[in-house]
Amino acid sequence: MRVLIYERAFRRLETSLSALPGVSYVRMQDDASLQLDGAALAGDPGIDVAWLAHDLFRTGPMREFMICCLKSASLKWLQSSAAGFDHPVFAQLARKGVALSTSHASAIAIAEFVLSSVLDAFHPNPQRRAHQAERRWQRAAFRELHGSTWLIAGIGHIGSEVALRARAFGAHVIGVRRNPRGDEPVDRVLPLSQLKQALPSADVVVLAAPANRDSEQLLSAELLALMKPRSVLVNVGRGSLVDEPALLAALDRGVPELAILDVFATEPLPETSPLWAHPRVRVNPHASAESDGVSRRNDALFLDNLARYARGERPLYLRELPEIAEATR
Fold this sequence. Notes:
Elements: E1 2-6, H1 7-18, E2 24-28, E3 34-36, E4 39-41, E5 49-52, H2 54-58, H3 62-71, E6 77-80, H4 88-95, E7 99-101, H5 107-122, H6 125-133, E8 149-153, H7 157-168, E9 172-177, E10 188-191, H8 195-198, E11 204-207, H9 221-224, E12 232-235, H10 244-253, E13 258-261, E14 281-283, H11 294-310, E15 318-319, H12 321-327
Parallel strand pairs: 1-2, 1-5, 5-6, 6-7, 8-9, 8-11, 9-10, 11-12, 12-13, 13-14
Antiparallel strand pairs: 2-3, 3-4, 7-15
């Protein structure tokens, strides 16, 4: 079995990878050239498996890696380090018969980003630092998370991690998802059709849903108008979940009080976007998962799944073509 892997990821895990019998590694270099056992490869490398490592999303030859996967006549399974699969390339691979596994290694990091951002919104930290710099002994009032109501749209891995942390602070959490199961770590779970009824009670609204036909423009002008005064919106799902012009108009009216945005309809966010300078917007460049633990968890998942695949077992978080096709339509 041959595995396509980024050179930096291979070097990091070489000891563990070398312990798997019957597996060889086609290593893509920073210049996108391919090597097998130290020798350069040309043409179809004959790969069975590909690992879209976290390093590739950051600084690696991502485009060339995916082109290699698309051109491969033998690729059977791809492990991604991302939770989402809404890029059209995944549908192209799935239609060729390539199985796709996603990852939820970023869920903890994103949940911590959400909690940190909301705490920063509830607490007057800049005012406190200013008082310190001025040597002023002056108290500053703040809002408590305890007793607040959170509405989380999308109770998958990310939404669940957010819910667990918010409830640990004593918040009341309402979860919304397309198909409630009953085991969600929330105080109450509702179907997506009842989002409209739940919005007016929420102090914090977190969008953590995937992009699909039901979540397109999920937060429309109509629903934004229902949000509670002083409420905080956090979007860590996809930019397509929010009607951005309607959000700007709502922010100008004062509700929600603040929008914390990690994702946008167009990325990178254009310099001309009014979101950059809006006083009620906090822009984060799709970086809520840039923690020191995501790569470590992705490495562990890949090693586990590769061992499963080598034994003929089903890898974790395997996605089927209909689900991928819906997300990438």
